[in-house]
């Protein structure tokens, strides 16, 4: 297949690009390098630098390449920034995607894989955990809303046109390609495992723990951390299912178990053998106490068999990548 990957120079998109190239698919990447890194793109992929929201760029790209399917990773992803600058998120996540979808419909591209997020669930109640795809979607920040609006566009388009999609609701994506080809390279990334690894390596002096008074086993928030390589495999399965004619789907992507912030920090200390400093801080606004996926649907639909479901292994690959970035 010939696949357009938007945001393919970014953290998650570059992992999928490598997997697709490995199995012999043709990959075209469209990325404006706002947070992505050119070096993380596989050598065998064609790279186009440009904005997904630019209709002329899209038309030229679709004219130059016979694209069979689109995988859409490009977007803005920092939750607190979305609260401060909501219009950036409704533009770069919702409006830009609308332009991309318009181009897909015009070009009769009927297969689409979308990076959605667990943030669409907002603050699920304790009795709603682990969340299923049927748990009400009540996002509490512009980031989550901008992504949910895209899910709605996809649903409506799939009813109106010959168009099928898989929207993957990622939980907390972490780790790096075990063979070291790519990883989380955005210096200002805020994800817990990334910043904890930076603290272990002395890139940052300390790590703040946002909130220690939650009703969880040690008072800190619980998240479902999924290794990026297992998530990449899900994308390949989603693409193959669409290619085989399967209907549109929305699927949670997690392992179905959670770790507290303190458990993650213990893991990073254990794996790095560095007892870095942490400070307890106030709760961060908008953090749900616990977010765990019910991933039963994903396993049932795609027969997905994760291979990296081990917190220390996730941390080990993230740490290895962080060391490489220091060179
Ligand atoms: N990282 C996570 O834990 C997580 C969790 C849930 C969902 N997601 C979603 O997964 C997707 C990928 O996230 P990531 O962690 O790889 O982020 P990232 O910032 O590393 O990757 C995003 C990529 O898109 C590019 N980009 C952004 N806007 C663009 C535009 N208008 N035109 C062209 N390129 C553009 C960036 O340069 C970057 O390469 C995002 O849509 C994000 O919302 C990520
Ligand atoms: O320096 C830090 C960073 C994080 N945390 C805590 O660690 C947990 C995980 O935080 P992350 O920032 O790593 O990720 P989130 O759980 O906030 O994830 C949200 O933002 C992501 C994108 O950044 C994804 O979209 C995801 O789906 C969405 O729920 C949270 O309890 C957070 O408060 C800290 O204590 N200190």
Key terms:
UDP-galactose 4-epimerase, domain 1; binds galactose-uridine-5'-diphosphate; Rossmann fold; single chain; three-stranded mixed sheet; alpha/beta; UDP-glucose 4-epimerase activity; binds nicotinamide-adenine-dinucleotide; 327 residues
How would you summarize the topology of this molecule?
Blueprint: E1 2-6, H1 11-22, E2 26-31, E3 46-49, H2 55-64, E4 69-72, H3 79-84, H4 86-106, E5 111-117, H5 142-160, E6 164-170, E7 172-174, H6 192-200, E8 206-210, E9 222-223, E10 225-227, H7 228-243, E11 249-253, E12 259-260, H8 261-272, E13 277-281, E14 290-291, H9 296-302, H10 311-326
Parallel strand pairs: 1-2, 1-4, 2-3, 4-5, 5-6, 6-11, 7-10, 8-13, 9-14
Antiparallel strand pairs: 9-12
The protein binds nicotinamide-adenine-dinucleotide (NAD) and galactose-uridine-5'-diphosphate.
């Amino acid at each position: 297949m010939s696949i357009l990957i938007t945001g393919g120079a970014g953290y998650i998109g570059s992992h999928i690009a490598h997997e697709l190239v490995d199995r012999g698919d043709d990959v075209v990447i469209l990325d404006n390098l706002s947070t992505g890194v050119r070096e993380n793109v596989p050598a065998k992929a064609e790279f186009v630098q440009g904005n997904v929201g630019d209709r002329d760029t899209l038309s030229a790209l679709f004219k130059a390449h016979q694209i069979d399917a689109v995988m859409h990773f490009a977007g803005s992803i920092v939750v607190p920034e979305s609260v401060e600058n909501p219009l950036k998120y409704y533009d770069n996540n919702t409006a830009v995607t609308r332009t991309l979808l318009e181009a897909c419909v015009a070009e009769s591209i009927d297969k689409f894989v979308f990076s959605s997020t667990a943030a669409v669930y907002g603050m699920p109640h304790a009795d709603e955990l682990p969340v299923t795809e049927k748990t009400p979607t009540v996002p509490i920040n512009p980031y989550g809303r901008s992504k949910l609006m895209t899910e709605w566009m996809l649903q409506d388009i799939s009813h109106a046109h010959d168009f099928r999609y898989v929207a993957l609701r990622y939980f907390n994506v972490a780790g790096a390609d075990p063979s070291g080809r790519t990883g989380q390279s955005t210096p200002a990334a805020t994800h817990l495992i990334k910043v904890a690894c930076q603290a272990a390596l002395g890139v940052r002096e300390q790590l703040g723990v946002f909130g220690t008074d939650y009703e969880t086993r040690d008072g800190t928030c619980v998240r479902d951390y999924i290794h990026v390589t297992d998530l990449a495999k899900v994308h390949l399965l989603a693409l193959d299912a669409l290619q085989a004619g399967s209907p549109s789907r929305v699927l949670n992507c997690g392992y179905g178990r959670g770790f507290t912030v303190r458990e993650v920090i213990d893991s990073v200390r254990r794996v790095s053998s560095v007892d870095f400093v942490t400070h307890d801080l106030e709760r961060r606004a908008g953090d749900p106490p616990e977010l765990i996926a019910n991933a039963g649907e994903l396993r049932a639909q795609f027969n997905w068999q994760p291979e990296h479901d081990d917190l220390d292994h996730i941390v080990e690959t993230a740490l290895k990548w962080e060391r490489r970035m220091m060179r």
